[in-house]
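**Sequence with structure:**
===
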Amino acid sequence: MKILYSVLVIIALLPGVQSHAQKDASHIRLFIIGNSFSQNASRYLKQIAERGDCQLTIGRAELGGCPLQRHWDSVAVNLLDSLRGKAYNGRSLKELLSNGKWDIVTIQQYSLLSGDTATYQPYARKLYAFIKELQPDAEVVIHQTWAYRSDAKNFGKISGNKRAGSQKEMWERSRYAYHKLAGDLGGLRIIPVGDAFYAAATDKEWSFVKDNSFDEGNPVQSQLPAEANSLNVGYFWKDGRLQFDPNHANEAGCYLAGLVWYGFLFKQNIQKVSFKPGEVSENFAAFLKNTALQTLRSHR
């Protein structure tokens, strides 16, 4: 047994044989392939990590409203002609991914299509193979995006042009699609941001409740509805016109997503995170920390 143990120790110490968990967890090189939702999710990630004495290097290939198909199409074009397919500020995904060594690479679907499993393949599988070809030692991880706010006028698509009828249905269908994707690609890990958002959105004490007294059809200049505990941007005025965004995360939503990413990546105690955006109250921040923690615990 002593001989066998010694052999195992030697193997574990050999270069390239260490598991992801054995790598230096205090400094992670993260590459994100996504869109505005990944920008939301990582908005406060570096501040959260730095306060926890964790180092994080982030590379990005993000395009607003970009689905998996578009990411792959840019790769396919670039592989045929190296002067084309440079969709990311004049650079290709190959150029960006080849810049150094990355520990983790994340992928995700465009939120509008996240509940439709037919939109994931074959693009995700091709992207995965492309990532592993350029970064064979990197772990590919799936970022589970969130469902739109409960008062959204329209929710994500679930089959062709058919849309989910509620926040709950969008969450359920997108959750299924992301977990199916993880299985299709060999059991990839998932950052469960969508689960955390839905848990917060349906909490008995802290959930967002629509202000039915607000008449959006006849709004008064500069007045807004009550939107306590919202994780999404919601209503705002721009250029004298009332705007509504129930999809993208606001400061609280970005914070919750960042907490989930931080706990997932660094395995640190989320309750000890000292950073919070100024717009988020102490009590709500404490709730969001607990939501992120419980989501990660139940996800394992």
